[in-house]
Amino acid sequence: SSYSTGSSPDVGRELLVQHLLLKEEDKDLLFELQKRLVRGEDLSDLAVEYSVCPSKQDGGMLGWVRKGQMVPEFEEAAFNAPLNKVVKCKTQFGWHLLQVLSEREESVLSDIQPEELHSKLQDPDFRQEAQLIDVREPHEVETASLSGFQVLSLQQFGSWGPEITTKLDPQKDTYVLCHHGMRSLQVAKWLQTQGFRKIYNIAGGIHAYAVKADPSIPTY
């Protein structure tokens, strides 16, 4: 495989990358654009005008990428490029001028079983350090709830979604709860796209928690 193994130091890194793609035969244009970049022109502006990649619509922005998502030559160039420096590489698609704008640790999304969560909830420090979100509707929360969970109803997403990084800390471990674990998974995946580092979906939701961990909680 050309992709990284678990031992690579790049595993766990995500890069915010923009690029410009030219056909292999367009070497003269490649040199011209390199000169314009040296003179201070912006890669995203040049991508809109000259790139043959569909990402030109977004100024060449590819978004956050991690090892294993790109062809090996592009990956090699991106993961060795200094931040904000435009570098050149060639792949089967043609010539790329690419720029890494930022880097971060890769987001981790995993399930947590009700019994494990129940154990953690007995620790006061855990309640202080973790962010606990219940994405069910208010009438559901009235029927059955876990103390310490902040209710961010999925149906009210429009009111809290745009402000999520001010309401919550993306660096903190975040646990998401719903009735059976499906709505919470939907929100957990969205939190990943917003830069949250560690997100746990409570497997089976509050129903499984009531059945497996705390029978004092009503099921519905």
TrEMBL record:
The keyword Glycoprotein appears for this protein: no
Enzyme superclass (EC): isomerase
The protein's Enzyme Commission number: 5.2.1.8
Reaction catalyzed: [protein]-peptidylproline (omega=180) = [protein]-peptidylproline (omega=0)
MF term (GO), any: peptidyl-prolyl cis-trans isomerase activity
Signal peptide (residue range): none
Domain Rhodanese: 126-218
The PpiC domain, residue ranges: 12-102
Keyword annotations from UniProtKB, A to Z: Isomerase, Rotamase
Source species, domain of life: Eukaryota
Database matches in SUPFAM superfamilies: FKBP-like (SSF54534), Rhodanese/Cell cycle control phosphatase (SSF52821)
Pfam families given in the database record: Rhodanese, Rotamase_3
UniProt-listed PANTHER family: PEPTIDYL-PROLYL CIS-TRANS ISOMERASE, RHODANESE-LIKE_PPIC DOMAIN-CONTAINING PROTEIN 12, CHLOROPLASTIC
Name assigned to this protein: Peptidyl-prolyl cis-trans isomerase
Phylogenetic classification of the source organism: Eukaryota, Viridiplantae, Streptophyta, Embryophyta, Tracheophyta
